[in-house]
Design brief:
The complex is a heterodimer. Chain A is 72% helix and 0% strand. Chain A is mainly alpha-helical. Chain A has one domain (16-256). In chain B, helix 11 packs across helix 12 (282-293). Classes of the chains: A mainly alpha, B alpha/beta.
């Protein structure tokens, strides 16, 4: 039949396309659940619990509301990227991965699309939180907006790896239902909901080793103005490596299985 | 356990081949190997002279599987578009939707589609690379009658244009109605392979059964068109190409009563050939037929 006329070749970039990235982003943006937990809930937390601290300042004179806003931006971004990474698990549970194996799409291109979607969602979470903050009176120098925002956003990449990792470990359609509470606990330990200083000493020591601590500290560092702490940086690097390595290993095991 | 054992099959371009066998015969395993979704324990699989995964990546082979999941929150058109985007040179989305007969539900959420509509969606996706070979694994399982009919209408329309189609099924009527050629498989081996007519010919003849104490076996065996005669107590069983002659003889020349005539159909051939020969008596008969008439 058309054998002679069909141009048979492999897709460029393993089948990764901007068109599919766009389609994927549009898809997550119309998921009301996702939008609620990522774009509505964190700013709502700010309005409910953050604004009551209006007028209070940190030791260096910065607004407490700014501190809370940045913390909640980190929280929004980490929920966004985790759920983005975990989408791989959801789609595997639905059998979509198997369907994709009947196409030229390379698994790496598929995962790259998911991670980039997660990052776009994470960026949106940070932006929405910042806009709500700015509108309700948060005032910080331009470099704080920029560097805190970038740290919250890029730091959340570790949670895209976390979502992927957990997704490969527990491939279930409802993976976010048990990841949600875990994220809340991690956020608490990372000092995103209340400053770690109010926690008991033992908890504070434990908190320093949990995965949200590093990104939270780094995102607030420009505001606190006391420089980047080595401990926080080390925390971020180690957890990124752990989750990235874990996700990578499970990804290879998953794709090797024929 | 060996699911597929030394199975070799040559399919000519443009053929519509039914891969027919009971559950557990090795159909899905064979097709999975053909598509690179499973690896043989020993030996190799080549399709169009290529590794299966390469043939799939180049779009020479496409498939509709029993299990391939769909994303429920996407629309039909989005699902096809997303798949089209990964091919360098796909057929237009509107064209494959049309050919699969689902252009009218393009905007519907996949989760709201019936089983039959979802299968036609998978078919539309499989049409995107304009494959040389279309593989369908039990494509109508779980569909209602109407869904099944619509699905096959779409497949037939496409096959008429000359595409090679290989489909696995355990529905006899599907193999009968839609295939040019039937390959019967049992325990991972091909037990019959021929055109639909040839395989049906295996089943030609009828079984005449009657109560006739002291039946004259020699006289019965001497009637024209009789293949075999068997006596079980007072019951006589006659396999014959022309059952009328046997029935007329029994009713007019003997005191036979309770005469029953049953047609052997594709189902009997199917059962005979796909049931273990040691446990099912008729299998031996049918297999002997097979050696002579096919291959």
């Amino acid at each position: 039949m058309t054998t002679t006329t069909v141009d048979r070749r492999r897709p460029a970039f393993g089948g990764f396309t901007l068109a599919n990235l766009t389609l994927e982003i549009r898809r997550v943006l119309r998921n009301r659940r996702t939008l609620f937990f990522i774009l509505i809930m964190p700013p709502a937390f700010f309005l409910l619990f953050g604004l009551s601290n209006r007028g209070q300042t940190l030791d260096n004179g910065a607004q407490v509301t700014a501190y809370i806003m940045i913390s909640l931006a980190v929280y929004g971004a980490m929920v966004a990227t985790t759920s983005g990474g975990a989408m791989v698990a959801v789609e595997r549970a639905q059998g979509w991965s198997r369907q994709l194996r009947l196409t030229p799409l390379r698994p790496a291109a598929y995962v790259a699309t998911k991670v980039l979607t997660a990052m776009v969602l994470g960026l949106l979470a940070v932006l929405v939180e910042f806009v709500v903050g700015a509108v309700t009176g948060v005032r910080v120098p331009a470099h704080v907006w920029l560097f805190s925002g970038l740290a919250a956003w890029l730091g959340s990449l570790v949670f895209a790896a976390f979502g992927l990792f957990v997704g490969y470990l527990a491939p279930a359609e409802n993976v976010m239902q048990f990841l949600g509470p875990i994220l809340a606990i991690l956020a608490m330990l990372g000092g995103l909901f209340v400053p770690l200083e109010v926690l008991p000493e033992v908890m504070r020591q434990i908190a320093r080793f949990t995965p949200v601590y590093g990104v939270g500290e780094l995102a607030r560092a420009p505001l606190a103005g006391d420089g980047v702490s080595g401990g926080a940086l080390l925390n971020l690097v180690l957890w990124s490596t752990a989750f990235g390595f874990g996700a990578g290993r499970l990804f290879r095991r998953d794709t090797a299985r024929v | 356990m060996t699911a597929v054992d030394g199975l070799s099959l040559r399919v000519e371009p443009g053929e519509v081949v039914a891969f027919l066998g009971p559950n557990g015969a090795g159909k899905t395993t064979t097709l999975d190997m053909l598509l690179g979704l499973a690896r043989p324990t020993a030996g190799s699989v080549r399709i169009f002279g290529q590794e299966p995964a390469d043939a799939v990546a180049l779009g020479r082979v496409a498939a509709v599987l029993q299990t391939g999941g769909l994303l429920k929150d996407m629309t039909v058109a989005e699902t096809v578009q997303m798949t089209a985007n990964v091919y360098p040179n796909p057929r237009p989305v509107s064209e494959v939707l049309e050919r699969a007969g689902i252009a009218d539900i393009a905007g519907r959420r996949v989760g709201k589609c019936s089983g039959g509509q979802q299968q036609r969606l998978r078919f539309a996706m499989a049409l995107l690379p304009d494959p040389d070979l279309m593989v369908l694994d039990e494509p109508t399982t779980g569909m209602d009658v109407e869904g099944r009919r619509d699905f096959w209408t779409a497949i037939r329309r496409d096959a008429r244009a000359g595409r090679t189609v290989l489909f696995a099924t355990h529905y006899l009527e599907e193999a009968d109605a839609y295939a040019d050629r039937i390959v019967l498989i049992r325990q991972g081996r091909v037990v019959a392979d021929g055109t639909t007519a040839q395989v049906k010919n295996l089943a030609s003849g009828r079984l005449v059964r009657a109560t006739l104490p002291g039946a004259d076996q020699v006289a019965l065996a001497g009637l024209p068109g009789v293949d075999s005669v068997e006596v079980r107590g007072d019951t006589v069983l006659v396999q014959a190409g022309d059952s009328d002659v046997v029935a007329r003889y029994l009713l007019t020349q003997t005191p036979a009563r309770d005469v029953e005539i049953t047609a052997r159909n594709l189902e009997d051939v199917f059962l005979a050939l796909t049931t273990d020969a040691r446990t099912a008596e008729p299998a031996a008969v049918a297999t002997n037929h097979l050696e002579g008439s096919i291959r």
